[in-house]
Amino acid sequence: MHDEAMHGETAAPFFSQVYEIVAKIPSGRVVSYGQIARMLGHPGAARTVGWALSACPDSLPWQRVVKADGSIASGGFAGLRRAMLLEEGVTFLADGRVDMEACEWDGAAASEKHPAVAAPPD
Domain limits at 12? Predict the structure, then answer.
């Protein structure tokens, strides 16, 4: 499934699945948009994950989803997101990106709910 194919009734269940995964990201950890898409079996849907997060419930830890290289997505909340991540103990590189090597969540908890998604090998 690619982003272009995700709309209407197809998007609603996908958005809910995105929210389930985001709710499980532990404090002090981050995950990329593409990683969530792959966890759900839709590796081409990173952009759709972003769309889902733009409409997510306020109670979700949306700040814990970043770009694959650790960059914080631009937009009106980039500064807030960075501040929230710093407060959680997320470390940043000198160039301003999240230190993905230190802070990336492997998604093990998500694979319990979505068995088609295997956590990365050790």
Answer: 3-104
